[in-house]
Amino acid sequence: MYIFLFNCIQDLDSYIKTRAPVTFLSELRGHLQVSQEPGQRYNIPLMNALVLYVGSQAIAYIHSKGSTPSMSTITHSSHMDIFQNLVVDLDTEGM
Length: 95
Prior knowledge:
Layout: H1 3-18, H2 24-32, H3 44-64, H4 71-74, H5 78-89
């Protein structure tokens, strides 16, 4: 079930650290989709794992810089790029 996460964890970690590969965000939706059937389009447990992982990485990064999580410390980060991409790229079922 979580094969995508294991196959793409290097790309995910790379994107979080360096915002590369640049294709990561554009390919993300395709990795999360499992069907075209309404109500079953997305792998929800995988999406939850992705959001939890990115969020925990964001908090760890902010704490490593000696800051606390706030709008100003997360707004222009690779972590927020991922969340914004999900909000913009997914349809209402995926949100």
